Amino acid sequence: MKKILIANRGEIALRVIRACKELGIRTVAVHSTADADSLHVKLADEDVCIGPPPGKKSYLDMRQILSAATVVGADAIHPGYGFLSENPRFAELVGKCGFKFIGPSAQAISRMGDKSQAKDAMRAAGVPTIPGSDGPVASIDEARQWAKTVGFPMIIKAVSGGGGRGMRVVRDVKELESQFPVATAEALSCFGDGRVYMERYFERPRHVEIQLMADSQGNVVHLGERDCSVQRRHQKLVEESPSPAVDDKIRQAMGKAAVKGAKSVGYENAGTMEFLLDEDGSFYFMEMNTRIQVEHPVTEQVTGIDLIRTQIMVARGEELPWKQSDIKVKGHAIECRINAEDPSQGFRPCPGLVKGLHVPGGFGVRWDSHIYAGYTIPPHYDSMVGKLIVYAPDRDQAIDRMVRVLDELVVDGPATTARLQRRILDSKIFRSGAFTTKFLEENPQLLEV
Predict the structure, then answer these.
(1) Domain 206-447 classification at class level
(2) For residue 165, what pLDDT is reported?
(3) What does the pLDDT read at residue 375?
(4) Of 38, 186, 201, 439, which has the most beta carbons under 10 Å away?
């Protein structure tokens, strides 16, 4: 593998470029006209403009990306996260065009990307799943029947969904009847697939996920868990590893279940099993992300394993260099997603010129970002502009370190979420570790400026 094209933009494209450089692999950045000045374009060995700013005319245009890979003579394509990373058709076409897709097979993406099929597959593998409908729910009458079987509260979810879209919590029949058509319409609008399914809704769970890595020889290992319970409208704001809610017994059981589930579908490359952890210690499979995750750095910090480098090595056909017994989680890591949004204005996106930038430093500090002083954040894409990651010997020290670096971070120009995250990290409830996915909902004072 001598040349990799990165079918993505921003921070994750830059992260892949850095891993490739350390492996002696040439890189190709594709970009829209709006991203011509992005740092990932400047640092790649080659770059190709693939279209205008709208994603569907550039980063989601399979033909343009594959044509670019052909023109530059790439060997492989790394999809990053978002855009086409979990599109089975893209993974299939990459292979048919003679390139290596750095990720799982199209079949695995398709099976695990369909939330209903994924749940069926995990249930068959013996992985605990959330009580709910057996597959998509086709009508309001069928929805009523499932509500009688499972009981309220329930949550309606898009079969092809993610990121909190196409989801509606219903607590009685009246709400079910009003929200069911809304959820199906949103699912169709956002994902081109109006199918929905229903699950029992847990009022105060933790969101805990297991990082997996699998090779083509059938070896699968997990690299511990990440806690992603600090969310706003199902969008993660803070992630950490290990989870303060997970003890050794739960960790072993959850890791074993995740590995078992991945093996049952013949999974290869990086993936993440997401679980809901109930207050009584029970956990249930939620979904599988068939790609690298935004929050992968916290796992890298506590295991010392470069996940992007490992993705590339696995895609080259190499066997995993370690067994499960070799994986050791040490210390504590926390990540804050720094978004160009204004919390005081309902999290209004704030694209625009970065007039100045001061990046925190010091022991145990990492900054993954594509922005720089003089860079203009475009309005066309996700508002995340960087990730602050800290590592320390224990959780208390990691929190203190993150509070310090959030104080040091300066993004002059666009508003960001850094001040809010500073208040979250320094709050008594976050420090206690006894919070759930309802954290911000139950502590609205943290949103006050």
Answers:
(1) alpha beta
(2) 75
(3) 97
(4) 38
Exposed / middle / buried, residue 280 (Cβ in 10 Å: 0-12, 13-18, 19+): exposed
> 341-342 and 332-339: which strand pairing?
unpaired
What are the φ and ψ backbone dihedral angles of 363, each rounded to 5 degrees? -60, 135
pLDDT at position 163 is 64
Quote the CA–CA distance of 62 and 78 in Å, as a whole number.
13
Question: Is 90:96 a contact under the CB 8 Å cutoff?
Answer: no
Cα dihedral 209/215/217/219 (nearest 10)? -30
Nearest-Å Rg of the Cα atoms of the chain is 21
Strand 168-170 relative to strand 154-158: parallel, antiparallel, unpaired? antiparallel
Query: In the numeric block, which tokens belong to residue 89?
Result: 């058709």
Homologous superfamily (CATH) for 131-200: ATP-grasp fold, A domain (3.30.1490.20)
User: 79 near 90, Cβ under 8 Å?
Assistant: yes
**How, if at all, do strands 283-289 and 348-349 pair?**
unpaired
Q: Is 436:363 a contact under the CB 8 Å cutoff?
A: no
Query: Is 291 a catalytic site residue?
Result: yes
Q: Contact, 417 vs 343, CB < 8 A?
A: yes
- Dist. CA 346–CA 29, nearest whole Å: 34
CATH assignment of 3-102? 3.40.50.20
Locate the domains of the chain by residue range.
3-102, 131-200, 206-447
Give me the catalytic one of 111, 251, 291, 423.
Answer: 291
Element (DSSP H or E) covering residue 207? strand 206-214
Contacts of 350 (CB under 8 A, 6+ apart): 340, 341, 342, 377, 383, 414, 415, 416
User: Which distant-in-sequence residues (6+ apart) come within 8 Å of 104 by Cβ?
Assistant: 91, 112, 267, 268, 269, 271, 290
Q: What angle do CA 71, 99, 11 make, to 5 degrees?
A: 80
Q: Flag residues of the chain having pLDDT under 70.
A: 162-164, 449
Alpha helices in 209-292 (DSSP H): 248-264
This prediction has a pTM of: 0.92
Residue 258 and residue 273 in contact, taking contact as beta carbons nearer than 8 Å: yes
Beta bridge partners of residue 28, listed in sequence order: 5, 46
Give the angle subtended at the CA of 412 by the CAs of 423 and 163, to the nearest 5°. 55
Return the structure tokens found at 370: 């594509």
pLDDT recorded at residue 191 = 87
Q: What's the pLDDT tens digit per position in 51-105?
A: 999 999 999 999 999 999 999 999 999 999 999 999 999 999 999 999 999 999 9
Query: Counting Cβ atoms within 10 Å, is residue 359 exposed (0-12), middle (13-18) or buried (19+)?
Result: middle
Q: Which amino acid is at 298?
A: V
Q: Distance between CA 371 and CA 40 in Å, rounded?
A: 9
Chain centroid, CA 346 distance in Å: 23
